[in-house]
UniProtKB/TrEMBL annotation:
Protein name listed in UniProt: Shikimate kinase
Keywords, sorted A to Z: Amino-acid biosynthesis, Aromatic amino acid biosynthesis, ATP-binding, Cytoplasm, Kinase, Magnesium, Metal-binding, Nucleotide-binding, Transferase
Residues that hold Mg(2+) according to the record: 44
Cofactor needs: Mg(2+)
Residues reported to bind substrate: 62, 86, 108, 165
Catalytic activity from the UniProt record: shikimate + ATP = 3-phosphoshikimate + ADP + H(+)
Pathway(s) of this molecule: Metabolic intermediate biosynthesis; chorismate biosynthesis; chorismate from D-erythrose 4-phosphate and phosphoenolpyruvate: step 5/7
């Protein structure tokens, strides 16, 4: 059986030409572009560049959670546990979705919450930045403070999270491959696929 991290990461159909930034913003209306995916997928890094290209605000949900709690995310996990963190995360994202349009980067576990998925579908367009296991491992090793990876075997933990989360991430409206390429190339992929979605019956506000 092929695992998610072993699946091909090449799209088989090229989308139509991208909309100009002003046309794309008009098509969005009040909806936000919501980036979902694993830790290390590049949601914050790519999101900042995407927001700059489109002339939209960029919001990192993790930063907003830390500001609301007055604590870092590792501190929240240590003091209150993951359940309390996830509840706060859900409430913060609910609030942020009412402030669109914007580019909103979410934490790796945020999209696993069914209420959050429903709210994103109502007030935003979800974009899954999908990355292979090897890509994620190389990236997360640069940031050793990830709470969910404080285990004896971080690679095994990450593999387990991929198996659990990728079927749920696949519910996102758009999937874009996060790969070892210039960030601008991934931004271009998002803009092209987002343009195609916004011009489809499913994407019209």
């Amino acid at each position: 059986m092929t695992s998610y991290q072993d699946m091909a990461t090449v799209d088989d159909k090229a989308p139509p030409a991208a909309l100009a930034p002003d046309a794309l913003r008009r098509s969005l209306g009040k909806r936000s572009i919501v980036l979902v995916g694993m830790m290390g997928a590049g949601k914050s890094t790519v999101g900042r560049r995407l927001a700059a290209r489109l002339g939209l605000p960029f919001i990192d949900a993790d930063n907003e959670i830390e500001a609301a709690a007055g604590m870092t995310i590792p501190e929240i996990f240590a003091a209150h546990g993951e359940t309390a963190f996830r509840d706060g995360e859900r409430r913060v994202i609910e609030r942020l979705l009412g402030e669109g349009p914007q580019v909103l980067a979410t934490g790796g576990g945020a999209y696993m919450n069914a209420e959050t998925r429903t709210r994103i579908a109502e007030a935003g367009i979800s974009v899954w930045l999908k990355a292979d296991l090897d890509v994620l491992i190389r990236r997360v090793r640069k940031r050793p403070n990830r709470p969910l990876l404080q285990t004896p075997d971080p690679e095994k933990t990450l593999r387990g999270l991929i198996e659990l989360r990728y079927p749920v991430y696949a519910e996102a409206a758009i999937t874009v491959i996060s790969r070892d390429a210039p960030h601008e190339a991934v931004v271009e992929d998002i803009i092209r696929r987002l343009s195609a979605f916004l011009q489809s019956p499913a994407g019209r506000a």
